[in-house]
Amino acid sequence: MARRHMAGARDTRATGVALAEREAERGAYPSTDASDPTHVERRTPAHLAESIPSNTFSGPILVPLRSRLGDTDMIVHPLALGTSTFGWTLGNDDAFAVLDRFAGTGGDLVDTADSYASGRSESIIGSWMASRRTRDRMHLMTKVGRSAANPGLSPEAIRAAVDDSLQRLATDRIDVLFFHGEDAAVPLEESLGAVGALVDAGKVRTVGASDFSPERLIEARVLAANGLPRFQALTTRYNLMERSGFEGAPELVAHAQGLAVLPYFPLANGFLGGGIRRRADVRHDARGERAGAHLGRRGAKVLAALDDIARAHSVAPATVALAWLLAKPSVLAPVASASTPDQLDALIAAASLDLHRSELVELDRASH
Question: In CATH terms, is domain 77-367 a member of 3.10.20.600?
């Protein structure tokens, strides 16, 4: 069953009007000519129509649908490119190659943070956008609150962090500014007030929360009702192997508030890619150990289900794992990273994969 056909079924179960409206507004931008990446047939409702700028990248635009980010005017690709490895395990040339492939296949949502590689991730992205002249077609998400230079969410730290990020990103605006975790030492109204001033100044378009508790999200919504900026997005750790941290109260609050959920570590540190089947496959580094922690009976059941569904659709297990996330009503786009351009192909393919209801049930059962 196609995901856009499933939207109607989801709407009948929705408890919030905002979700139903957002699902009804989903549209598509398929290419009509595989040899021409700038030729895009628009099939989105007229009130969501946007201009898709031409680009200099090779390859067809393969995006079957785009979605609105919260209640903003941003219509974005259903996969966000995570860039925490930029400037750390990936140098400029390798990061540029990944960004080129991502943008060349229609990607436009890039996630970073001022703390990633001490700001080098932002600098690489800024250099890439300047060299490729892609700023106006990309949606930039960055986070503040954990950098060594500007820690915390005081108004002073937020203002300084945003100015530093803008300089590294070589841009005049941040599309989505995330609070990188809660700061119990600073009243939330002060942090949101600082962002409000940045929005008024044109430096920030909208604000999101990263790893906020349901209680803090509710507090933020009350403050928004009194005129402060409203959270439009939530980043949280969520995947087939790690469900309990989001499903339950966080998911209910995100749903009720109409937050665009962007799960990070959507492949469980690479485990759901299927390359780790036994202890000997585990790499001897922090990421490898985190992936290896999922080895066991439950992990084997999940990989077996992914393998079966992947074979049925002639795709990679990672594609199925991301498609499972995209079938969740509150999920806007998984935040996934890649070390090489070729790895992106399986990630991008998730946006085109329509899982049958029986396959979703199979994955749910295997992962519980």
Answer: no
